[in-house]
Amino acid sequence: MLEFKQVGEVPDYPAYFLSDGTLLLTLWQATDPATATPFDRKTNIGLHHFALKVDGLNTLNTLHETLSKTDGVTIEFAPEPLGGGPTQHMMCYIPGGIRMELIAPGG
């Protein structure tokens, strides 16, 4: 599916590095997640969301099903047409409150 693997970490930072062989993502852990300030896209400056392209609608639907059962993930909306075209997308909040969009190009 997304096929990201952990390729490194700095435990005392703490940071984890994930890659699919093309992209590298760095994930930081809050010192105390219970008291961390969640991101609010309407009032904070920072990342609104990030988007990843998947290889088709079947993959998008499988990811939706998997993510909807994953602890710490909240589905904002299920796969639906993007801009009235054949491309489909979905949006979810991953742990830490970051919004992730998954896009399956149509056609």
Topology:
Layout: E1 5-10, E2 15-19, E3 24-28, E4 50-53, H1 57-68, E5 74-81, E6 88-94, E7 98-104
Parallel strand pairs: 4-7
Antiparallel strand pairs: 1-2, 2-3, 5-6, 6-7
Task: Quickly list its features.
mainly beta, 107 residues, three-stranded antiparallel β-sheet, four-stranded mixed β-sheet, 39% strand
* Largest sheet properties: 4 strands, mixed
- Total tally of structural domains: 2
CA radius of gyration is: 15 Å
Main sheet: which strands, in order across?
Answer: 4-7-6-5
Mean pLDDT: 87
Shape: globular
Can you tell me the CATH class of the largest domain?
Alpha Beta
Helix count, DSSP H or I runs of 4 or more residues: 1
Instruction: Count all strands and give the number.
Output: 7
Strand content: 35-45%
Unreliable stretches: none
N→C terminal distance: 20 Å
- Given the helix and strand composition, which structural class is it? mainly beta
Q: H/E series, N to C?
A: EEEEHEEE
Percentage of residues in helical conformation: 10-25%
Tell me the CATH architecture of the largest domain. Roll
CATH third-level topology of the largest domain: 2,3-Dihydroxybiphenyl 1,2-Dioxygenase, domain 1
